[in-house]
Amino acid sequence: MKKQFNRMKQLANQTVGRQVLNTLSIERRMELVRVVSHNTHKKMVSCLQGHIGADAEKRHKKLPLTSLSQAMVEGGNQLGEDSLIGKMMEVCGEAENRLASELMLHELQIEKDVLDPLSQLAEVEIPNILKQRKQLAKLVLDYDSARARWLQATKSIISGTNTQALTAKADLLKEEVDEAMNKVELCKVTKENRFFFYRILLDAQADYHRKSLTVLESVLPTIQAQQDSWMEKPAFGMALDDHLKRSGREIALPMEACVMMLLETGMKEEGLFRIAAGASKLKKLKAALDCSTSQLEEFYSDPHAVAGALKSYLRELPEPLMTYQLYDEWIQASSVSDPDKRLQALWLVCDKLPKSNKNNLRYLVKFLAKLALESEVNKMTPSNIAIVLGPNLLWAKTEGSLAEMAAATSVHVVSIVEPIIQHADWFFPEGMFWFSSAAVFNPTSLPLFVVITPVVLEGLVVRTADTSQQGGGRREARVGDMYWKRGIKAKSICSVE
Description:
Subunit structure: Component of a complex whose core is composed of ARHGAP17, AMOT, PALS1, PATJ and PARD3/PAR3. Interacts with NHERF1, FNBP1, TRIP10, CAPZA (CAPZA1, CAPZA2 or CAPZA3), CAPZB, CD2AP and SH3KBP1/CIN85.
CATH architecture of the largest domain: Up-down Bundle
Protein name: Rho GTPase-activating protein 17
Radius of gyration: 46 Å
Number of helices: 19
Strand order of the largest sheet: 2-1-3
CATH topology of the largest domain: Substrate Binding Domain Of Dnak, Chain:A, Domain 2
CATH class of the largest domain: Mainly Alpha
InterPro entries: AH/BAR_dom_sf, BAR_dom, RHG17/44/SH3BP1-like, Rho_GTPase_activation_prot, RhoGAP_dom
Mean pLDDT: 75
Keywords: Cell junction, Cytoplasm, GTPase activation, Membrane, Phosphoprotein, SH3-binding, Tight junction
Distance between the termini: 132 Å
Structural class: mainly alpha
Organism: Nothobranchius furzeri
CATH superfamily of the largest domain: Arfaptin homology (AH) domain/BAR domain
């Protein structure tokens, strides 16, 4: 009873550790830290894509990125290397596998450096701290008791007679006090300096994302190179020279394909280029031409869709076929009042066109001239053709809506395009035979048209003798003074004449 009374008295008069023992909020704080750590650990585990505790190989196999990688590689192998999609899937599959490896290493690091210490804190260390707190309270009381006895012994030495015995007792009590104090301090040591795993988490995530970005940046140039080197590229909206260079053609594929289909089924169709086609079929045909497919049989029965696709191709060129650079010269030439001089001026401008533009314009104009020959049936005279198709061949390089630009240039364009169609053989004396549309998608087998060099006859000059120079010579012939070189046998091809 007396011992318990002394202990209660100690609790009332204790000195060392009073703040620790008297603060009930410490236990609440530690419990809160434990709960927060437990919840954080739980949510962090749910963020992992691999199975926690599994070895590296098993974890890698179970990752969704690994499954995606395998599916893409298998799909690429099935499609083959002759397919752009197949090549891209194979490259992307390899990249996804590398990303999966980086993710696996990242999650292993997170598990080792963050999850395990966090779990240790919540489940082991904080409960141990709470237990040590109780031990600390007992040690503090023991220290206070030993110190009180030591002080009492020290006082006895001063006032007592048996100094040697009292001094020895005081020394023993002093050792007991020091030992008790050491135990108190050991028990009070904090472990907060060990709990840096939240910083480790952010550092690990930053490192993972940097490595993932490196993987992606190393793959993107390969993907881009494959796209750039692939022959089958969209033609609509692409610059004419780029399309011709990449496809290895002289005439743009959409133009050639549409012309060939119209030559076979659309020359007598009334209102060709004037009557709008169905939007869905037109969209489908443009998509087919964009991917260079030769499966166009379903469109032969709808010449208006084919004509609409040709108009769309011309309109969607980044630069008009007759070029921005020569726009002012075209307009100026069309303003000449004298008909013969106007033709001469138009021819001079036409002769300034870049080679690829001139070749494609010649191809188109030759076709339109043939179409105009059937005007009694199809109602498409050179004037009507120029009205509906001219604004797609030449427009101003100015800001504004399509309607505004068309209104501003339509009158001039008609006066430019109409005479070129009317006198196609004079503007482009090279004759032409047309092959069937089956050859359009196989440009390496046969040329799609044959250019026939005109005969230069003395007295009926269609071009000055020096035609080898850039731009050719001056035109002096009257309209219609044209002679063709015969002698090309074309039993297997279809002549436009």
